Model the fold of this input.
Amino acid sequence: MYTELFNRIRLRCKLLLLVLPLVILPIIIVAMITGYIANRQAYMGITQTSKDDLQHMAEFTIDLLRSYDQQYQDFRHSISGDLNTELSSESFSALKNKIKSKRVGTTGYIFCMDRKGVLTIHPESEGRNIIDVKDSDGNLFIREMINNRTGWIRYPWQNAGDEKPRMKIVRYEYFKTWDWIVAVGSYEDEFYREPNKIKSRILWTTFLLIIIVGAVATALVFRSSSVIVSPITSMIQTIREVRKGNLDARMNVSGNDELAEMAAAFNRMTEIIKRNKEMEASLAQQGKMASLGVLSSGVAHEINNPLGVILGYAGFLEGKLSPKDPNYKYIHEIKRERKR
Done:
């Protein structure tokens, strides 16, 4: 079925169907491979960079807490009790505000909790016990953090208003001095926003490139096909003339390619056919003349037989009559007309 449909298509369309896949498919393959490698490298690089940022933020928070603890110990021995308590409260409040003001990406933040799961520093839920909080898969990820004290955790989390859970990655460190867990977390899709933009740009660039290359390839195919199709069209016209009986029609021979060789062979074939036609006509004429000669010979023979009899009787009558007989001249006329 497909072969029949392909055979019905004109030559230019066949060339287009054959050339376009050869031009476009390599572009698609190269673009897909390049896009995959670039996107993968971007994801890997940004993932590593994001993890380094989370690690640095966790270490930064630990350093802040350690620095505050050191200052607190120094102030406690040098300042009286009430003043010490007031300064410590103000200093700790400033420390918390500084930690809470730090953001990771768009919505990521830093939070701290004790080993019982009570949030000691948090942008919104400070003082809340979250030890039994579960992620979207039902896992007690807070307990896992408290048990491991230090490490990485990745879990799905769905906030109010989200259509579906989003993967969150958290780096947590243990601050032994206060028996706290310091955690820094952010959503993965915020990390991958730029790689996704790169991926989208690659797809659009590939799409535009395919359109441009396809249009240029189509124009070139139609332009180059005219070099092949035009001589073939001229050949077809010559063949039609010969089929109508015009054996003087000849194809134009130019160049040394296969089309020129085919045109020359067709011209030779037409010349041979013309000579054969002329030879057939000559043989037919000769046959007609030979038949006419045979017919004439037969006709002469058939006429000569009765004329011979007539001449014989005329001679016999001539010998019987006297030249002075009035009928003599008729006998003599019969003999003369017979001989003529």
The CA atoms of residues 255 and 261 lie 9 Å apart. The mean pLDDT is 79. Residues 11-78 form the longest helix (68 residues).
